[in-house]
Amino acid sequence: DSTARAQIGVTGLAVMGSNIARNFARHGHTVAVHNRSRAKTDALIADHGHEGDFLPAETTAEFVASLEVPRRVLVMVQAGPATDAVIADLADHMEPGDIIIDGGNSLYTDTIRREAEIRARGLHFVGAGISGGEEGALNGPSIMPGGPAESYEHLGPLLESISAQVDGEPCCTHIGPDGSGHFVKMVHNGIEYADMQLIGEAFDLMRTALDMPVAEIADVFRQWNTGDLESYLVEITAEVLSQVDAHTGKPLVDVIVDSAGQKGTGRWTVKSALDLGVPTTGIAEAVFARALSSATAQRERSRGLGSGQLAAAPTDKVEFVDAINQALYASKVVAYAQGFDQILAGSQEYDWNVKPGDLATIWRGGCIIRATFLDRIREAYAADPQLPSLLLAPYFREAVENAVDAWRRVVSTATLMGIPVPAFASSLSYYDALRAERLPAALTQGLRDYFGAHTYKRVDAEGSFHTLWSGDR
Ligand code: ATR
Question: With a threshold of 0.90, does the pTM exceed it?
Answer without folding.
Answer: yes
